[in-house]
Amino acid sequence: xxxxxxxxxxxxxxxxxxxxxxxxxxxxxxxxxxxxxxxxxxxxxxxxxxxxxxxxxxxxxxxxxxxxxxxxxxxxxxxxxxxxxxxxxxxxxxxxxxxxxxxxxxxxxxxxxxxxxxxxxxxxxxxxxxxxxxxxxxxxxxxxxxxxxxxxxxxxxxxxxxxxxxxxxxxxxxxxxxxxxxxxxxxxxx
Length: 190
What we know:
By secondary structure, this protein is of the alpha/beta class. Helices cover 38% and strands 22% of the residues.
């Protein structure tokens, strides 16, 4: 009987925790740069990581989507991203989510020009981060987070920003163990 009660408490705790946890991410399909050259992704690398985190945590999940679609051509997209960064643009999002009921938010993005895409800034600036725990993750091809963590801390005022998970895009599809360890709280940089 005691074992059944303990199991029920553990299950209830997991359910309660997942109801207060959210995974938010921006990801882009199309051409992507890798050490092997340009490849075409049907599912963006950051989305793959976000869905793995959601699967492990049972959290709610929300995809950031811009009103204006970025080019599928890698070189054109990098120019668009650079122009937005230089202009400090805040691209409009198709939808938003009320984060008030969430205590913990995993936030993921591809590293563009040494930080997060400007649509992530749009999302961050639209919310009150006081008392939230933000767990960042990024995909990249050599830059890691760049200045993304610094920029996140500056924008998500009032939040506790934890160490994050940084994965090379080329390793994302074989990174189950690293993601699992990250979610378990080891919060290692890779």
